[in-house]
Amino acid sequence: MLLLCAFITGVALLAGIAVSAQLEAVRAGVSDPLLLDADDDGVPAARAAAGS
């Protein structure tokens, strides 16, 4: 039971952090993702490749 509660707490904490990061990005006016998905496979390209 304790392990289940710890797992649920961890998932809720990470989900809350992710939602707050998305809200902060919307508030800051970021409309495009930082890493572009050039080949549309669902995996973003590397940061170095996007910058060059």
Verbal overview:
The protein is mainly α and 52 residues long. Helices cover 62% and strands 0% of the residues. The longest helix has 27 residues. It is flat. The mean pLDDT is 85.
Topology of this protein?
Blueprint: H1 2-28, H2 47-51
Terminal residue distance: 50 Å
Helix content: 55-70%
Q: What are the segments in which pLDDT stays under 50 over at least 5 consecutive residues?
A: none
Number of strands: 0
Estimated radius of gyration: 16 Å
Tertiary shape: flat
By DSSP (H or I, 4+ residues per run), the number of helices equals 2
Order of helices and strands: HH
Mean pLDDT: 85
Largest sheet: none
Instruction: Label the structural class.
Output: mainly alpha
Share of residues in strands: under 5%
Quick take:
This protein is mainly α and 52 residues long.
Identify the notable features of this structure and list them briefly.
mainly alpha; 52 residues
